[in-house]
Specification:
heterodimer, A: alpha+beta, Heat Shock Protein 90, 36% helix, B: alpha/beta, five-stranded mixed β-sheet, 5 helices, 5 strands, 18% strand, globular
């Protein structure tokens, strides 16, 4: 089977649509018959990355490639970049603004959750240019 | 026990009615959405004060059986709309999370 390709444009300001891409990817994986555990891992990782994109980067683009062996999701933004990825990976570290915290985000769990629920996480980030995140979940 | 029975037994107010035949198999308390996202399980009654649109998203993605807004926490208009679109049951109680969790545990584990 050729990989199923999915593409989503993410608005940078609209919290009301944040989570829609991960929701749609979830539906697609369900219809393709992936196990609930795999679907949960992908959904959580992508949801966190999608929220990060809205909170920090003014939106971006998400591409997902689904094959029987693995699900790869690439999130590209042109936001401010991450100055210290090691610090950002620490649970509890957050630069989210107060209004975002009031919505229940900004607990410094985003990137750690993505790592926890994926088999591979690659982060490329340049300050002032943006961030690309590649999430791989193996279908095992 | 399904959501319908939970509503009756705990005298919960229904703010948005989704599939109330869904089984309730557990309970999770939490307000930090990322935290809840990674820990709540399918079938949980999720107790929270977060009545915003993102909470509805988290309930949909985790497949929680329902949201129960504790301490009479409010549901935003946007969140109500999204709950109805996504068939998510949102309930409300004047009781606090601790009391509700204890009652739900008794209903789920009557032999204990």
């Amino acid at each position: 089977m050729d990989p199923v390709k999915l593409h989503y444009d993410i608005s940078g300001t609209d919290f009301t649509t944040a989570g829609e891409a991960s929701g749609k990817i979830k539906k697609t994986l369900k219809s393709l018959g992936f196990s609930p555990a795999i679907i949960r891992n992908v959904t959580i990782a992508v949801y966190e990355a999608e929220i990060n994109m809205v909170v920090h980067a003014g939106g971006g683009e998400i591409d997902a490639y689904v094959s029987p062996e693995k699900i790869e999701v690439v999130l590209v933004d042109h936001g401010p970049g991450i100055p210290d990825i090691g610090l950002a990976m620490q649970e509890g570290w957050s630069t989210a603004p107060e209004n975002v915290r009031q919505l229940g985000f900004g607990a410094g769990m985003g990137l750690p959750n993505i790592k926890k629920y994926s088999d591979d996480l690659q982060i490329e980030s340049e300050v002032g240019k943006g961030t690309t995140i590649r999430i791989t979940v193996l279908n095992k | 026990m399904n959501v319908k029975e939970l509503i009756a037994k705990l005298d919960l107010k229904t703010l948005s009615e989704g599939d109330t035949d869904l089984p309730v198999t557990g309970c999770y308390c939490g307000d930090l959405l990322s935290w809840v996202m990674s820990r709540a399980q399918e079938g949980d009654a999720w107790l929270t004060v977060m009545g915003n649109i993102n909470a509805i998203g988290v309930a949909a993605l985790t497949e929680a059986a329902c949201i129960i807004l504790v301490d009479n926490a409010a549901l935003d208009d946007d969140a109500l709309k999204k709950a109805q679109e996504n068939d998510i049951t949102v309930l409300q109680s004047e009781a606090d999370a601790f009391s509700l969790a204890v009652w739900i545990n008794r209903l789920l584990n009557p032999e204990e």
